[in-house]
Amino acid sequence: MNFHNRLQNDLAIAMKARNDTQKWVIRLLKSTIELAEVNKGQPLTEDEFLGVVQKEIKTRNESLADAEKANRQDLIDAALAEIAILKTYLPAQLSPEELLELVRQTIKDVNATSSKDMGTVMKVLLPKLQGMATNSEASRIVKEELNKA
């Protein structure tokens, strides 16, 4: 089932269940995807869809940090609920150990030896992740591994 059909089915389920938060998040995600498709001029690929979902999660994480600074529990709860819904559209996340192993293998594959090679490593690594880890987490681990070398 492609992501458009899945979103439509999930929206129908949320409407029947009268789950306002889930309805709102799915509608927002659908409109963000439609906007991205209009800007691109063609339908999004699965990888591009995962990128949109990750971007929305990142936005919610930023909102969560702001809510925590303001000590607003209502906003914290709302952001956490939205993040949980959005994460259902991502593939299973890699464990820290699996991500570290993938980073090490990629560094070995591209013969990276210093932090100057970070761009090369990331260019090869990011397509392998396909939504299974955040780019920021991958970047952090690559930087740590290259600094060890």
Quick synopsis:
The chain is mainly α.
CATH class category label of the largest domain: Mainly Alpha
* Class based on secondary structure composition and strand pairing: mainly alpha
Number of domains: 2
The proportion of residues in beta strands is: under 5%
CATH superfamily of the largest domain: Uncharacterised protein YqeY/AIM41, N-terminal domain
CATH architecture of the largest domain: Orthogonal Bundle
Globally, the shape reads: globular
Low-confidence stretches: none
Biggest beta-sheet profile:
none
Figure out the total of helices: 7
Average predicted confidence as pLDDT: 90
The number of distinct β-strands equals 0
- What do we call the CATH topology of the largest domain? Hypothetical Protein Yqey, Chain: A, domain1
Give the termini distance in whole angstroms: 43 Å
> What series of H and E elements makes up the topology?
HHHHHHH
Percent range of helical residues: over 70%
Radius of gyration: 18 Å
